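Hi C.,

You asked whether I'd gotten around to modeling the 485-residue construct. I have! Everything is below, sequence then structure, no commentary in between.
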Amino acid sequence: MHDPRVDFECNLTRRQFFSRSVRGVAGGVGSAALAGLLAEDGLAGPTGALANRHFAPKAKRVIYLFMSGAPSQIDMWDPKSGLADRFDEELPESIRMGQRLTTMTSGQTRFPTAPSLFQFHHAGESGCAISELLPWTAKVVDKMSVIRSVHTEAINHDPAITFMQTGHQQPGRTSLGAWLSYGLGSTNKELPSFVVLHSTWNGRPEAQALFQRLWGSGFLPSEHQGVALRSAGDPVLYLKDPPGIERPDRRRMLDGVAALNRHLHDEIGDPETMARIQQYEMAYRMQTSVPELVELDDESQETFDLYGPDARTPGTFARNCMLARRMAERGVPCIQIYIRGWDHHAGLPKDIRGSCRDIDQPCYALLTDLERRGMLDDTLVVWGGEFGRTVYCQGALTREDYGRDHHPRCWTMWMAGGGVKAGFQYGKTDDFSYNITENPVHVHDLNATILHLMGIDHEKLTFRHQGRDFRLTDVHGRVVHDLIA
């Protein structure tokens, strides 16, 4: 168990020395010195300078669109025309090779091949194959790097999503956005450096829960955790002051609490005490900045039309994509949008249509909007889920209806803007979209590449915890330079 006395001894350095020695002469100067030294050491929260990059970045910010539940690559991005002649045939053992199955299909007596019901066409000058489910996305496919060879070890949703977001299947590690907040800070002191948005959905009604630890700070100071904005009521709980409390009253109260916390930090030396001060200050600033952010009256009708009919409805994926663009404009370095409903174990043809309607036009609009504002070149947009789906059917199979189980061996993600190649396709799978045949990209490779595009060496962004230096990519990961323009 972590001993806070160790922190006390470690922190009894120049920070404590100046704070204590100057306090007897002039308390105000001591506090100012402490705050300055904390900022120097990276313990006072985002500096606003983004000066900690290891090399020149391709991207200044990342917008991560996470499709929770695992979109079917076979029905959206990875066409296998030869499967049409294999309808209901047993998946060859030479393809499955005894690989691990979930408990949902391991008891099946058969693994019948289920060809996609949907037609594919080659879009754009790049000729990227894309499903009829995504007519809007097809219009911007030339802006993307489509990666068909992502893979993971996790086979169930919670560990797989946790792995994607934190680099480890078990809870407790630091999320990607928190790492970015810790490493880079933010140019906007009025908004958090890591913001999370949750979307309503029209796919499968039942959906896996998303836990706060997915955007948590783990062992980093808690000021780096993602701030989730609510779609109903106040965007953040208790954003408004209660009746009878005015801004000057709130300011005096926070100053008093901060003084007490600084005194506690002088005595104990717990970095979380300073994190608490930063969180109080951020909350105070957000009382002004967040209402302005989520109020879209200054957006034109043309912009609403671009994002589609759902853009005026709070909580929709379309609305959240608009908010993400507004945050990107305001200097928020990491924005993550979650949408659930992609877990299509049964009734896939019906439910995936609803899922694709939710995200198709907004994805097109987000890339188009960023580009026309001159922001796409330095904004990295990432799209994908936690794993793929099987070529074999889960449950009853007909030509018009089928379901697919979890498949960690290969799935498709795409990236756009932020220094990645445009109109590029990477990685290949076998004739059943079951195994990778060319250019595998592991989860750690993907995260290493995202950090690299943001100007961070994934092997150098570390944090010492319980005697070990931790990083997002653990002891693995390679930057996929083939994806970088």
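If it helps when you're writing up: The chain has a mean pLDDT of 87.

Thanks,
B.
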